[in-house]
Design brief:
By secondary structure, the chain is of the alpha/beta class. It is built from eleven helices and nine strands. The protein has two domains: 135 residues, Rossmann fold, CATH 3.40.50.1860; 107 residues, Rossmann fold (3-Layer(aba) Sandwich). Helix 1 crosses helix 10. The protein is globular, with a radius of gyration of 18 Å. The mean pLDDT is 97. Bound molecules: D-glutamic acid.
Length: 256
């Protein structure tokens, strides 16, 4: 395995591209192989068994293509599968994604933090443990971003319907006093602009996990001595069983 092999980045669909963009920006020598399971997206309301099976299948494909590290750029897949994957492939480096509850809880002034994520993520042990851990520091309002994933998959972020969907979810949270909104699903950062428009002048901060995950990836590349060569020309590959058109849409979403 060469250090110039790609980092695999996985999501149920296009959401993980929000993480891909940050990885590409900060790690300009690294090749990236993105797998978006657009044919079976969304994962958020699927059973644990389905999410586990789909995630394992995708990871096996990425490993077969020589990925040197796997980023589960999907909170839902992480919540369901990361433990299993680490136990099954002890030699593989996995980086998972979790809602950034900690920075929100540590910085809230109102003491009320909203976490937006999929149903499967919010019902998982990982999130339950995290919210229990911080329960005495802040009140956590955990809510599903109903319809958000579909909007992002259909490239409809800039439509009036998107704004309506965001308003329906976000407005009650702000009215309830939340001054931090955690984007606990990698699709949601594509709606950040709309969310911030809905927030308007109110003192509410929107927080997502992509920068923290990127730092974790860098840390692990260094710790394991896996960084690509300084003169390596990175390749960006996109894969999906949803077909060529979907692959073109993924490329377009990141401006390629
Ligand atoms: N992007 C995924 C996440 O971070 C899941 C979206 C979905 O498929 O429901 O949770």
């Amino acid at each position: 395995m060469s250090n110039n092999n790609p980092i695999g980045v996985f999501d149920s669909g296009m959401g993980g591209l929000s993480v891909w963009k940050v990885l590409r920006e900060h790690l300009p020598h690294e090749s990236l192989l993105y797998f978006g399971d657009g044919a079976r997206c969304p994962y958020g309301a699927r059973t644990r068994e389905e999410v586990l099976r789909f995630t394992v299948e995708a990871v096996e494909k990425m490993l077969a293509q020589g990925c040197k590290m796997i980023v589960l750029a999907c909170n839902t897949a992480t919540a369901v599968a990361v433990k299993h994957l680490r136990a099954t492939y002890p030699d593989v480096v996995f980086v998972g994604l979790e809602p950034a509850v900690k920075p929100a809880v540590l910085s809230t002034e109102s003491g009320i933090v909203a976490v937006l994520a999929t149903r499967r993520s919010l019902e998982g042990d990982l999130f339950r443990q995290t919210s229990q851990q911080y329960a005495d520091r802040a009140k956590i309002l955990a809510v599903v971003g109903e319809g958000f994933v579909e909007i992002v998959e259909q490239n409809e972020e800039h439509t009036p319907e998107a704004e309506q969907a965001v308003r329906r979810v976000v407005e009650p949270l702000i009215e309830a006093g939340a001054d931090r909104i955690v984007l606990g699903c990698t699709h949601y950062p594509f709606l950040r602009e709309v969310i911030e428009r809905v927030v308007g002048e109110r003192r509410v901060e929107v927080i997502d996990s992509s920068e923290a995950v990127e730092r974790r990836v860098e840390y692990l590349l260094d710790e394991r001595g896996l960084r690509a060569d300084e003169d390596h020309l990175p390749q960006y590959e996109f894969a999906s069983e949803a077909g060529e058109e979907y692959i073109s849409k993924m490329r377009a979403k990141v401006g390629l």
